[in-house]
Amino acid sequence: MDKFLAGVIGCLLCSCYVHGALKINSIIGPEYIEDGTIDELVLDCDFEANNETDIVVKWFLNGQEEQIYQWITDMGTANAMGPLKDVIDPTYKVTQDEATMLRALKFKEVNPGISGNYTCKVSGDNSDALMTKQVIVYSPATSFDIALILGTDGDETILCDAINVTPKPIFDLNIVGTNDSTEWPEGFIVNKTEAVDSFGYYNLSITLPFNSSYLEEGTTKFVCSLSIPGTNYSETKSVQRFIDSGTPAEIEMNDYSENITVALNFTEEYRFDHGDNGLAPLRYSFITFFMLIFPLLLIT
Ligand SMILES: *[C@@H]1O[C@H](CO)[C@@H](O)[C@H](O)[C@H]1NC(C)=O
Ligand SMILES: *[C@@H]1O[C@H](CO)[C@@H](O)[C@H](O)[C@H]1NC(C)=O
Ligand SMILES: *[C@@H]1O[C@H](CO)[C@@H](O)[C@H](O)[C@H]1NC(C)=O
Ligand SMILES: *[C@@H]1O[C@H](CO)[C@@H](O)[C@H](O)[C@H]1NC(C)=O
Ligand SMILES: *[C@@H]1O[C@H](CO)[C@@H](O)[C@H](O)[C@H]1NC(C)=O
Ligand SMILES: *[C@@H]1O[C@H](CO)[C@@H](O)[C@H](O)[C@H]1NC(C)=O
Ligand SMILES: *[C@@H]1O[C@H](CO)[C@@H](O)[C@H](O)[C@H]1NC(C)=O
Ligand SMILES: *[C@@H]1O[C@H](CO)[C@@H](O)[C@H](O)[C@H]1NC(C)=O
Ligand SMILES: *[C@@H]1O[C@H](CO)[C@@H](O)[C@H](O)[C@H]1NC(C)=O
Description:
Radius of gyration: 32 Å
Pfam families: V-set_CD47
Structural class: mainly beta
Strand content: 35-45%
InterPro entries: CD47_Vset (IPR013270), Ig-like_dom (IPR007110), Ig-like_dom_sf (IPR036179), Ig-like_fold (IPR013783)
Domain Ig-like: 22-136
Largest sheet: 6 strands, mixed
Strand order of the largest sheet: 2-9-8-4-5-6
Bound molecules: 2-acetamido-2-deoxy-beta-D-glucopyranose
Oligomer: single chain
Number of domains: 2
CATH topology of the largest domain: Immunoglobulin-like
Organism: Rhynchophorus ferrugineus
Number of helices: 4
Transmembrane segments: 282-299
């Protein structure tokens, strides 16, 4: 057999029989926290070591090469360094066992600035092990609202905005039309804007200008949703737009203003009713023009 191949196989076999063995069971701690709900946070690197010597526990942030915490287990003290040096308490003992007591990261304060991917690496003379956990400290939007703004001539706008949310959320506007259709009708273009400050807080807005004559008869629901991936934070707000046209053919012959109603259906504090015809779909104005004005023109 090829010497190199033999070497490789030997090495693979041999690695199975190495005396020392290190294993990280889990990083114990929350995956996400709402900002302001807790004052302190512990990430505990729960590892097992068998026949391993000179064990060192290191923590890393966001895959960076420089550790933010180090404990040489033969020594009774640990050190925090790097960007979170002032936030981490290197004297915190998570167990009473001298072989594991300083393995955890304890944050003396909890705010969105500590969000990140934390890697615990445990190394010994014969082996090492590592594990990463994402921790997100999020801040819900201080305000999140949807509104339907009425203009003239069928001109309407949906406006949804979310203020001061971190980290970057997923923010979207969806439509649920007649027959539960979720396709955007033609002529609907969603305009999204976002601004972020130096602390990573986002202001987001969606505007959707449209012409009410593009809506189908029945109820159309606009649903604005906000969520932060990696957390259970999510909020939705919706507004419903109801278009009832009665029986169009007869309506224009009579007094169409009493036959066409436009109802706005808002969720929560925005709910109110609207019976006025000023907002009626423009196609009726058009028909009215021909039925009422055109004959007049002919007469004169
Ligand atoms: C530890 O090493 C000793 C001596 O080398 C061996 O007998 C024992 O099985 C090892 N224990 C483990 C858990 O690997
Ligand atoms: C953690 O790492 C993943 C994968 O690289 C990345 O998508 C995510 O944004 C990181 N999380 C944080 C809080 O930086
Ligand atoms: C809305 O659509 C109708 C019919 O297509 C059109 O006549 C009207 O001018 C439009 N209104 C606005 C504000 O664009
Ligand atoms: C909705 O469904 C009804 C019955 O299935 C159908 O007659 C109607 O055309 C549908 N409307 C739209 C806008 O698809
Ligand atoms: C989107 O909205 C922003 C701010 O309201 C505006 O400046 C921009 O022109 C809009 N973009 C489009 C494509 O309508
Ligand atoms: C977000 O909106 C709030 C309130 O209007 C404002 O105080 C803050 O400066 C805005 N932040 C950004 C990044 O635009
Ligand atoms: C999100 O998770 C936290 C803690 O795990 C829990 O207290 C809260 O009720 C959850 N919220 C929702 C909306 O599920
Ligand atoms: C429309 O209005 C006329 C007169 O105001 C009324 O007689 C008729 O019943 C109405 N039609 C509908 C569908 O409401
Ligand atoms: C308005 O919303 C309420 C509650 O969601 C519902 O019961 C009602 O039928 C809706 N009205 C219209 C006109 O869509």
